[in-house]
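Today's session is about reading a structure prediction critically. Students often jump straight to the picture, but the first step is always the sequence itself: look for stretches that repeat, for charged clusters, for runs of hydrophobic residues. Only then move on to the predicted structure, which in these notes is written as discrete structure tokens rather than atom positions. Here is the chain we will use throughout the hour.
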Amino acid sequence: MRRRSRLDIWTFVLVAAWGILIALLIWPLSSILRSSLLDNDTGAFSLVHYFQIATIKAYQRAVGNTLLAGFGGMTGALLLGVTLAFLTTRFHIYGRALIQTLAVVALVSPPFIGAYSWIVLFGASGVVRKGLDAIGISIPPLYGAAGVILVFAFKFFPHVFLITSGALASINRSVEEAAESLGVSPTKRLFTVTFPLILPAISASALLTFVLSIADFGTPRIIGRDFNVLATEAFNLYGSEVGGNPGMASALSIVLIVLSMIIVFGQRWVLRKNVYHSNMIKKPERKQVRGFKAVGVHVLAYAIVLIGALPAIIVVLFSFRRTSGPVFQPGVSLQSYERVISTISDPIWNTLIFSSTAVVAIVITGTLIGYLISRRPGIATGALDAILMVPYVVPGIVMGIAFITRFNEPPLALTGTGLIIVMAVFIRRLPYSARSVAAALKQVGPNLEDAAVSLGYSPGKAFVKVTVPLILPGIMAGALMSFITAMNELSSSLVLYVGSTITMPVRIYLSVMDGEYGTASALSTILLAMTVTAVYAAFHLSGRKESALL
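Below is the predicted structure for this chain, in token form.
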């Protein structure tokens, strides 16, 4: 085997990668931990903030509400996503491509847009509620815990659908056929054979949806009303210019991170030692169903994806309605778009500039880190890989507070600049690129690169000239997914923005909170159009929906 020099360009890349993660992840988050352990009055070490979380009912409710939203959203998303995945992989359904497209539409629309759409339909002045009132049917507005969980379930089920669909399609049909030949009923076979084989996929999607649910700020803020969670409480405490309590906000943030980490380690504990695979002999087949069973399968599958895509559809339709404050008027109009273009176009440009700048840095850094993880195994790269998990479990609101705490004073006084938003987006979305590149490298052997080095190429030149072209689809998929999520970033931007650096998600959020539903609809439609365009490009370049989105 060819011996590599201990000190080559990749050694310096490794040092630089650690420097970036320390400066933009570990150092800012350490300020949150430090702030949570200091008394506000004396500045001395104290656990008073954590004691207050354990004893004050408002904070206890926030913790309980966070867990309720997390487990409620996770359970709803699992029920919807696994059901849809099972239907589409086990039965012939007409329009499977349409179902997948609608699921992706539900996936790429920001969660807070979903919350806003449900308000348009079932809020205090909702269109559906007003229509039902006209015929004598009165229903309460959809606010509070039920509304938050409903939005989370229909927002996040596409993650479950895409992950479990791949797992169900990889099951060895012989195992299920063996159970059937032994007289096991279809229902029992489903729970004793099929689901255990896809438990890693189910647990991975459960972990993802739980973390996404407890980290979400916009949905409980918009539709929760008095249903406060840790993210909204932390924002309220830190965002108050008069009488703010950054120490308590930091303590709540730490609790939020700990909850996420408990679920992460819990998932790994559940999967420990057990084997969940079988050798692929026969691929699963889709059954042709007829009669009432066929109708039921199609109705259920389409109902799930149509309701999931409903928020995006409603936003687009209502962006062309006349508005008077929070009330939509009859008739088609471009009034909202005219207002956006003439008076508030800056958020559009800020979003494009900040996202593009962050993604350029993400692609370069993520590609190099992905290579280190895949090709240069060792203690340092293993630790680097583990640290890359942190941005997944740190909510955006926490990252925003960490950045504004750490970069608020000279010589690194970046508060109020566009750079601090770019930095926050960069570190939050870096794992997408690094993971995508690492996955692509697993499918490309090192032989060609080694041959190039043996012919006189330096390691860096061999990487650029030989390896990068081979993994370009993976690089582009990670880049576009980073761009999609960067454009839709709300939580950290809401903490870090000032008037001149406001982005589209922040402006949409503020418009909803101010009752400017027409403006919110128009901006949301523009944001959705930009996102769908990026998703289409990701599909085209990656060749697989799963690789582009996960």
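Discussion point for the tutorial: The domain at 46-309 is CATH 1.10.3720.10 (MetI-like fold).
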